[in-house]
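I am writing to request your help with a piece of structural work I have in hand. I set the record out below, with my sincere thanks for your time.
___
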Amino acid sequence: MPFGGLAVRVDPGVYVPRWQSVPLAHRAAARLSEQGIAIDLCTGSGALALTLMRARPGARVVATDIDRRAVACARANGVEAYAGDLFAPVPAELEGRADVVVAVVPYVPSPALRLLPRDTLHFEDASHYDGGPDGTDILRRVATEAPRFLRPGGTRLLELGGEQAELLRPLMERLGYRSLVTWADDDGDLSGLAATLPGRAS
């Protein structure tokens, strides 16, 4: 299927990348240096990782997913993908070295799952979407664990929605993130958040 000008293989049962995630991928690519390192969490088919690989051919892009079907699909798309929960399978030699951590994690509040299009949960697992009571359960985990892998000045970029940026802001400030930047979709709805660790100017 198409994703921002790329043709991406999506196997049955694997999270289907949405066009709304294309700006996130492009923002992540802009933060990735030519010979840098990026980590793509909850990669699904590997669409975001592929975008980064296309934009920065000399960079190393590593992806993870807890769903082994997704890992197999991402590998079939040419992505260096590992099976496991968030950062758990990321090679240890990448700690403290990543320019970018990017993720489209499950962030739909559990009570809102019933509002998803009817066919969504027919073809995909609810686990691809369910982010807990306010949708921030996994977003908080990524924010907390990312500093271990980011270099000074590195950036963590997340897709999210609603009031989730404000819900996460106190946690991110306690963790030492700076330069918190949000962006909206064409309808003016919140769609992403970037936060940078102290270091060189971003």
